[in-house]
Design goal:
mainly beta, 4-stranded antiparallel beta sheet
């Protein structure tokens, strides 16, 4: 039987101690004698122990606890567990068999068994397994119906992971969302809001949850526009407004209108041609679920002003559609010929085609084809305001075959007075004196008043000379005889 002598004292094999020397040796049935403090040791071989892990935990999900197991040798010493990856998992409980999964990754557990009496300690064994992401769910309550003009409002949802929930709109034409605030666009219909939680390193993304609610039509924006912009429009017979004009209208029918002809800048006007919805000048509309624009289209027109010089006529002017060509015809009078058009353009074409790209003014000019001849007679007499003043109406007539302009009396001369004792002088008229209509076509007449100082006398007669003139150097003198007071 094995035995041990400790400092001369005998200890049988049944001793509970196992003594080891400073330099211990293990041999098969070998007695090692060594002088180590008087200790004599008889050593027997230690029995080896082996650890075997059970199946790895499955599933191993973040945030849960799992249990590991292993069997060891027969020494009676327990198998204990420790974590080699404490950032992913930790152990607790009896012998560390309860494993808390605290992060996604690889968890490595080390198993150990201590030796006892004649049993050697077991070699440590590792078991590794993967910790996967945890699932999460979103709780998102139902949303109540709204009116399309309601104010923005808040929404909320929670995730089982306690991570924040994000919202988005699946119907941005009806509603938008920023953070946890929903804003209605004023378009009626169905608004759908989606709640999402994207997950993180430990949680997988949650399944999206949608909530929909009805946006009822209460009122809607209607915009009245004109082309070109800036013209006048009205709604429901109200005051005129400059387009574009936007207004929030209650649901139902309303009347939109515009003015048929509207003035622009000088020489420009706009004439109604139609609404974008094919409605008449004033017509009924029904408020739509979405904001709606109605456009009144107008045709731009420019003013054509025409004038004729002496000796003819010309086509009347007026407002002409922009971008079109106006046809202008000059017609000469008898004794005249068309010369040209002047003003917005200079042209000898007749008729004239004139592009209306703005307000235009043209004059038709004519020239004579014969010579003028001016004559004069007195057609009326009246008292003047001066003592003995008489106002004679002198009628000047163009008896020639050509027109004349700037007709005037350049002077009046007293040639003779009978009896000689009578005193007749010129009055207050200033010369040259233009006739009332200084442009005379053949056969036309015009008048001019002449003042003379002519004392009352039943027998007095006067002879005087009328000197006439016109443009282009024309002159003529007419002598009137036996003119009484």
């Amino acid at each position: 039987d094995p035995w041990v002598t400790l400092n001369g004292s005998y200890c049988a094999n049944s001793c509970n101690e196992m003594l080891w020397g400073e330099n211990g040796y293990v041999g098969s049935q070998t007695t090692l004698m060594a002088a180590h403090g008087g200790i004599q040791v008889y050593v027997r071989n230690l029995t080896a122990q082996t650890i075997t892990f059970g199946a790895a935990p499955s599933p191993a999900v973040y945030g849960t606890n799992v249990t590991v197991s292993a069997t060891g040798g027969t020494s009676g010493s327990p198998v204990t567990f420790t974590s080699a990856t404490t950032g992913v998992c930790t152990v607790s409980g009896t012998n560390g068999a309860t494993v808390a999964l605290i992060a996604v990754g690889t968890c490595t557990i080390t198993a150990n068994q201590a030796g006892a009496l004649t049993y050697a300690a077991a070699t440590a064994v590792n078991q590794s397994f993967t910790v996967t992401q945890a699932a999460q769910t979103i709780t998102f309550g139902s949303l109540s119906a709204k009116g399309n003009t309601d104010a923005a409002f808040g929404i909320s949802a929670t995730a089982s992971s306690s991570l924040g929930v994000a919202f988005s709109s699946l119907t941005t034409s009806i509603c938008t969302v920023s953070g946890g605030t929903v804003t209605l666009t004023t378009t009626s219909g169905t608004c759908t809001i989606q709640a999402n939680q994207a997950g993180n390193s430990n949680y997988a993304a949650a399944s999206a949850v949608n909530q929909s609610f009805t946006v009822n039509l209460v009122a809607q924006y209607v915009t009245l526009q004109t082309s070109p912009a800036g013209l006048q429009v009205s709604i429901d017979g109200g005051a005129a407004h400059t387009a574009p004009y936007a207004v929030l209208l209650n649901a139902g029918s309303h009347t939109i209108a515009t003015v048929a002809t509207q003035a622009g800048t000088t020489g420009t006007q706009y004439v109604f041609s139609g609404w974008s919805d094919s409605g008449t000048l004033s017509h009924s509309i029904t408020v739509s679920p979405a904001p709606t624009t109605y456009t009144a289209t107008f045709v731009t027109q420019y003013l054509l002003t025409t004038a004729a010089g002496l000796g003819g006529t010309v086509t009347s002017g007026g407002y002409i559609n922009a971008g079109t060509n106006a046809s202008i015809t000059a017609t000469p009078a008898s004794g005249f010929a068309f010369t040209n058009f002047t003003g917005a353009t200079t042209s000898t074409s007749n008729p004239l085609s004139l592009l209306m790209d703005g307000p235009k003014s043209v004059t038709a000019n004519f020239s004579t084809t014969g010579a003028p001849l001016l004559t004069a007679i007195i057609t009326a007499k009246a008292d003047g305001t001066l003592p003995n003043e008489r106002i004679w109406t002198l009628q000047v007539t163009n008896t020639g075959s050509g027109a004349i302009t700037n007709v005037r009396v350049t002077s009046v001369q007293v040639v003779a007075v009978s009896p000689a004792t009578a005193s007749v002088t010129l009055g207050s008229t200033t010369y040259p004196a233009a006739v009332a209509n200084p442009a005379l076509s053949p056969g036309q007449s015009s008048t001019v008043p002449i003042s003379v100082i002519f004392p009352a006398s039943p027998t007095a007669r006067i002879q005087f000379r009328i000197n006439l003139a016109g443009d282009n150097g024309y002159t003529n003198s007419i002598t009137l005889s036996n003119v009484v007071r």
